[in-house]
Amino acid sequence: MNRDPHGRTRRRRVLSAALFGAAVGSAVTGAVSAAAVGMSFGEALDAFVVTNALIGVSFATCGVLVSWHRPRNPVGRLLLAAGVLQAVTAGAVPLVRYGLTHGWPDVLVRGLVTVATCSWPWAIGLCLPLLLQLFPGDAGLGRGWRWVAWATVLSSPLFEAELATEHDPIADGYPLGYTAVQGSPAAWLTPVAEARTLLVVLAGLAALAVRYRRGDERRRRQLLWLVAAVLIMAVAWVPWAFVAGTLVVVLFSIPLVPAAMTIAILRYRLLDIRLVVSRTVLYGLLTTGVAGVYIGLVALLDRVMREQVGLGSSLAATVLIAVGFNPVRVRLQRLVDRVLYGDRSDPVRAVSRVGERLAAGLPGVLEAVREALRLPFAALRAGGTEIAASGDAPELLRTLPVTYGPDRIGDLVIGLRPGEKRLGRTDRAVLELLAAPLSVAVHAVGLSDELQRSREAIVMAREEERRRLRRDLHDGLGPALTGVAFKADAAGNLLAADPAAARELIAELRGEVARAVAGIRRLVYDLRPPALDDLGLVGAVRQAIDRLARDGMAVRLTAPETLPALPAAVEAAAYRIAVEALTNAVRHSGAHRVDVRIHLDGRLHVQVTDDGTARDRPWCGGVGMASMRERAAEVGGVCEAGPGPQGGRVAAALPLAVPR
User: Fold this and answer.
1) What is the pLDDT of residues 539-553, one digit of tens each?
2) Where is each Signal transduction histidine kinase subgroup 3 dimerisation and phosphoacceptor domain found (predicted)?
């Protein structure tokens, strides 16, 4: 589907190219005319030919770029209009001199003067305020601002009338234009026009401020480009306005405005605009301050000495100001950087800020990281999963490792500030410092999760043990005792009538009771082996070795004669791990020798090794291996099982006290 059926885009581009050609043609005409009449560069500069040509061509160039790539954006058309108006003035002024030199008719010469006088005020009084009100031009004006734009348009003739009616020639020897008024114009025109100019400029700045406050990151980045240009203009204007008494320098800086607008609309990510604005704000404030102090100091010297300040006094004042303002410069630099970049120039403060938020958990820590460095986004990832985040993720992200000791436990994902394409060296250095408290927080979360999983496993194991006991009691011992009770009643009933049958039932009762007792002993043994209470850990393990050892297998136990008193849970865990490992070695390893070693070195160590074939193949985790690890974890220990250099190897390290 054709979205431009009438060729509006093509026509707009053709019109833009034509206006650009008109601006360049006017500037070239002025340059050729100036050269033809021998106008020097100084004369052209004093007549504002150079500045008008530069402003006109720069506005027109930026305008044609914006109009070509964004045909619907009104900013491009306004830039073109301003460029043409300025360039026409630049071309007309030398042409007037050429006409005077070559005897052109007075009507034509005065007409050119009128064009030169009346052209450029429309660029300054109408186009520039509208540019401020509309920029960046892709959202239109709200209802509250439309009346401001209309007021700007309708009141623009006041500014034009103020300048066009002046009775001063545009240069020495030039005639007056047709709009010049003999004597002073209406008394009310100048103050009203000046007030109008101030109001429309303030309205444009207010519109920019509102748009910045309500805009998203993209809009703010665009507006910061214009802010940077305006601040640079202010830096250029302040000293020359007070010292040199001319605005030539500020006129040369005006092309920064269309350049900034063009970059903001077409390539707003070109540079780290926050850094540009930071430096501009700093030096703008410093320049203003230096100028003010300089004027005050010169006035004071003039009052004291009652004479004009000479060159030596001016130089001395400049040196004093430069030396005195250096501490102010340092403080202003810190203040501006802190506003735009946080505490990156003060790593200690940044680390302290993050450390204070450790108790708030990972989201609070990440928020502190963002606040410390003015970052739009920060997140932590562990195991490929995002475990915490703060802020809105921008398009450009950077990842830094988070380590705890030698281990990499996660990644810190950072969102770059608007306008940045890489993480600066200073930011990276501060983030590496912040990684220390972050690693502590991530490690603490990992420990907490591991503890939670361990508790859940212990609870599940305990519930499984209770379920098994209930099943054994309900399905085994319960029916057995019920049967014993029935047979006891039957034997009692037969005792008088049939003693032989009664004795037979009693014999059966004896066997069933014996089996029930054996079942109870098995349950008790499962809860805690009686041998531990009778023989101790070493004796119980030795008894298990005697029971499990088969012919052709040598089993050796290495253990101290006596062990200190151990918690019952630790003792039972050590015994069951040793018996399980010994059972696996006897049944599955094909070993000829098994070594069981028990020793203490601040922890209770149980180690079972064999010379079987397990070294030749990986171990598959089964119920027995899982059981050994769970029994060790229940008391706060660890158990490792797998192939060793000589065969199978099971090693457990258990604490001497059960953690609570």
Assistant:
1) 988 988 888 776 667
2) 465-532
